[in-house]
Description:
The complex is a heterodimer.
Chain A: E1 2-4, H1 5-8, H2 18-28, E2 32-36, E3 39-42, H3 54-65, E4 89-92, E5 98-107, H4 116-125, H5 132-144, E6 149-152, E7 160-165, E8 171-173, E9 179-181, E10 187-191, E11 194-198, E12 202-203, E13 216-223, H6 225-234, H7 240-245, H8 252-268, E14 272-279, E15 288-292, H9 293-300, H10 306-315, E16 319-323, E17 327-331, H11 342-352, H12 374-388, E18 392-393, E19 399-400, E20 421-422, H13 427-439, E21 447-455, E22 458-466, H14 470-481, H15 485-491, E23 492-494, E24 498-502, H16 503-509, E25 524-533, H17 538-546, E26 552-562, E27 567-576, H18 582-596, E28 599-600
Helix pairs in contact in A: 2-3, 4-5, 5-8, 9-11, 10-11, 15-16
Chain B: H1 2-17, H2 22-30, H3 36-44, H4 49-71, H5 98-112, E1 116-117, E2 123-125, H6 126-129, H7 141-144, E3 149-151, E4 155-157, H8 162-171, E5 176-185, E6 197-207, H9 212-227, E7 233-237, E8 243-252, E9 269-278, H10 280-285, E10 294-301, H11 303-310, H12 315-319
Parallel strand pairs in B: 1-5
Antiparallel strand pairs in B: 2-4, 3-4, 5-6, 6-10, 7-8, 8-9, 9-10
Amino acid sequence: xxxxxxxxxxxxxxxxxxxxxxxxxxxxxxxxxxxxxxxxxxxxxxxxxxxxxxxxxxxxxxxxxxxxxxxxxxxxxxxxxxxxxxxxxxxxxxxxxxxxxxxxxxxxxxxxxxxxxxxxxxxxxxxxxxxxxxxxxxxxxxxxxxxxxxxxxxxxxxxxxxxxxxxxxxxxxxxxxxxxxxxxxxxxxxxxxxxxxxxxxxxxxxxxxxxxxxxxxxxxxxxxxxxxxxxxxxxxxxxxxxxxxxxxxxxxxxxxxxxxxxxxxxxxxxxxxxxxxxxxxxxxxxxxxxxxxxxxxxxxxxxxxxxxxxxxxxxxxxxxxxxxxxxxxxxxxxxxxxxxxxxxxxxxxxxxxxxxxxxxxxxxxxxxxxxxxxxxxxxxxxxxxxxxxxxxxxxxxxxxxxxxxxxxxxxxxxxxxxxxxxxxxxxxxxxxxxxxxxxxxxxxxxxxxxxxxxxxxxxxxxxxxxxxxxxxxxxxxxxxxxxxxxxxxxxxxxxxxxxxxxxxxxxxxxxxxxxxxxxxxxxxxxxxxxxxxxxxxxxxxxxxxxxxxxxxxxxxxxxxxxxxxxxxxxxxxxxxxxxxxxxxxxxxxxxxxxxxxxxxx
Amino acid sequence: xxxxxxxxxxxxxxxxxxxxxxxxxxxxxxxxxxxxxxxxxxxxxxxxxxxxxxxxxxxxxxxxxxxxxxxxxxxxxxxxxxxxxxxxxxxxxxxxxxxxxxxxxxxxxxxxxxxxxxxxxxxxxxxxxxxxxxxxxxxxxxxxxxxxxxxxxxxxxxxxxxxxxxxxxxxxxxxxxxxxxxxxxxxxxxxxxxxxxxxxxxxxxxxxxxxxxxxxxxxxxxxxxxxxxxxxxxxxxxxxxxxxxxxxxxxxxxxxxxxxxxxxxxxxxxxxxxxxxxxxxxxxxxxxxxxxxxxxxxxxxxxxxxxxxxxxxxxxxxxxxxxxxx
Lengths: 601, 326
């Protein structure tokens, strides 16, 4: 929201510098984006529709600075009663999209350029000046936050405004000369069944105001904000009107805005002012809320007097309905559509009182029950292991191009067709990192990622390792968790340059991999050379040896050699925690022969 | 034999002075096959008893003497030509991802204060990502976080780690102290500061007697831990649908100390996180009585902190494979 300070000062007589004013705005919730000379740009958050108006911003500033708010003059008297054939008929055929459609008619006005003060303010805000009528409607929109709209009565084929759902055949040409196609989800203002305005979003050129205009119909509509938001996205129009209409505005705002517009038109364009139809079948009531002193204390943790709270709420425009020693009931003003619960009143009191006055406190008391996710700590341990093994951790984006494999998780609304599904392996997103290293002339590299893969709308935790020689890495991991090769098949896989481990399974099947030795034992070693078929997996044999006898403490593979096309030899060193090995050896060799058909060379 | 021992002692002395390799020297004197001393022991085996005893004593003395000297490293000076000033390639040390390093540091702080570290699913339902968090579908705030849907409108990739908050509050009873680091997704066209994939760090506390003062105090201590005792924070009102009252937190720009410079976009402050008192509707949605319990929550991006610490200027470098470690 851009706030020309000269405009702001019309409502709040503040003497501070632009920087100081910006600081106050920032503290109370309107953070400064930038100061542009005498214009502040404040970041807007979506809940406060009144912060899209200069008066709304001024109101909070006045409350924060404990200054008076000066309201702009309104024309509160009713307009003349229209003659029978002077009424512009209003008909709403889509009441689900329209809450109120408030109209007036002005006749014999003089359309001309606006006075300089008005032009300057609009231009500082960022809206070009056109003529007094168009400028006034824009001015009131920025001042009060209610978009306004005027049409030239002479250009209307019928003295009526009918609001109905759009049809596929409808099309509208905007004032900018853009052709827009419509559909049934949208609604339009029509006359003689011809669309003149896309409801709440943009007007057509056919009934626009120019110097020849003398009679106008003015409308202030109140529409369903969700519909406006969806339509504006669909037709890709974002403008000052949409900015305000896609928030919830209270229908009451149309009354104030019309009174203000009438004041300015009669002041700057003259003419006669007529009542017209105010279509408002279901009144939206103003809500009431009660603020309890106990609640204020419970959230703020400090003693703010109820009288202070009352002052603050009053300065923000709340009407005090009831008060007692321990609570205040207020009517929520029409411009505060964001206020829903008691804690929102607490928020108003605390922020206008300033957060800077809130003391700091450390949480105390015994720590609650530990509910950490076990896999998180376990994966962190795995991460340490990998780092200790010299591997670098990378995190890659799981969004990939759809492959069309079964179980793949595909996104319905991805912006890019290169990233419209979730990965089924980490390898596919980790490998590009390897080539980045290669580009940097680093080829001797080990990488890992701890992440997820996605299948059938479920996710699975995975540790993926890339390394040119993954076997020693895997051996180290398995040793750490006391897991044999046989069990590894159930928790992961290894290839020539990678290891994939399902971390949850590893966590659940891990044993104790104690590598600490404190007693010197009477160790002895024996070397064996086994002959295996080429296709035979030595892992099974290894596992068998390792677990064969309690006194076999280590099995080391020294060498694997190809003997012929069909056979290989594996040279193994077995360490015993005894020197009396003959019986164990005999039994082992016969078991290996029997179960695995493995012989000594 | 005495003569021989004397000669050997002298030879050893010279050897020790010109030593190149300790193991070789050891083998020269003690190798079972060809070592000088075992050879002598072999020789005296054929001596008659008296002579053997005498020679044995001399030999044993010599053996102990040489052994001791060889064992006592400090007496051995190996002449060396190594130039220590010439750098060697360092051994390979693995590195954890920058984002993880930052998250670990934060965990360290919160673990100290008794927080649990909780993870939740990335494939999430609208129930936990929006509805329980006071974010109904037509809420304007849902525009902020354009969602990547797997099956519209109910199955999606979580847009924030607040979904974990909704899950924890729905299953645990207060007192609760939890932090939750995690991957999040948004339907955004990536640029240098926003990406479709990013990391968030969320924390929340629910207990009796929790006030906005605890939120302020916790965040102050936390930032002192991360950035040092002279860190200065600014607390201002900010709206988030998940909280009421909401609170935005900024850190005084360390470059200009608040005077305004390019890095802080001339604001003097860096926006660092969003926070507030957990909205009573959320507590209610999750089955916690908001009259009895209150709580605070905060959430921040991990990426920007990691980028700051490691001098990375584009969020895409963090996760798109364009970053290497040396």
